[in-house]
Design goal:
By secondary structure, the chain is mainly alpha-helical. The chain is built from 8 helices and 2 strands. 55% of the residues lie in helices and 4% in strands. It is elongated and about 130 Å long.
Length: 204
């Protein structure tokens, strides 16, 4: 039995069975020994195999999640490598500075912050020359938008498109009537072979 234990073989059974087991491995290398003779080699039942499969699946899923996290961390490190290096250098520089140097640097940073705040306040100040014109009304002689009622009175809210003038858009009937005498419309009429008389002013 002691010899079987030394070779890692099963020690159960009768004296004759143990002797046969020991004789069967005589002269064999450990790798050549039948695995059924080794101690602790019990046949796995079906439930045990299923349990092992579930465990292996859970471990593989866990390993996959770890690999994804490692990849994300590696990507973040590569993206932030510049900031990390700058932070390390900043900390190392702070560690070797004297108290007077640190105080002077703090004062300089405070002055910079105050300058930035002043610039922001200047940018936020409303522009007095800004004209509020959400409807994009035409401007009068003073540079201000004309009243909306006057805009509608002159029919400037009506849009006319002339294909002869290259799909040019004219706002209001007055501007539309005037464009018939303009060189662009006259040239288009000549190209079409139509006389540019008052009878054809409606052709667009």
């Amino acid at each position: 039995k002691h010899e079987l234990q030394l070779r890692g073989l099963k020690c159960g059974g009768t004296l004759e069975e143990r002797a046969l087991r020991l004789f069967s491995v005589r002269g064999l290398a450990p790798s050549e020994v039948d695995v059924t003779l080794l101690a602790g080699n019990k046949k796995k039942n079906k439930k045990g195999e299923e349990s092992e499969k579930k465990t292996d699946k859970a471990l593989s899923e866990q390993h996959r999640e770890i690999a994804v996290l490692e990849a994300q961390i590696s990507t973040m490190i590569s993206l932030l490598s510049g900031q990390l290096q700058a932070t390390i250098q900043h900390v190392e520089r702070k560690q070797v500075q004297t108290a007077a140097e640190l105080e002077a640097e703090m004062l300089e940073e405070e002055e910079e912050d105050e300058g930035i705040e002043e610039e922001k306040e200047e940018e936020e100040e409303p522009d007095e020359d800004f004209i509020y014109n959400p409807k994009k009304l035409p401007l009068d002689a003073t540079g201000r938008p004309i009243p909306y009622w006057l805009y509608k009175l002159h029919g400037l809210n009506v849009k006319y498109v002339c294909e002869i003038c290259g799909n040019e858009t004219y706002y209001g009937p007055r501007n539309f009537e005037k464009h018939f005498q303009e060189a662009k419309h006259q040239y288009g009429m000549r190209c079409l072979g139509i006389p540019n008389t008052r009878h054809f002013h409606g052709v667009t």
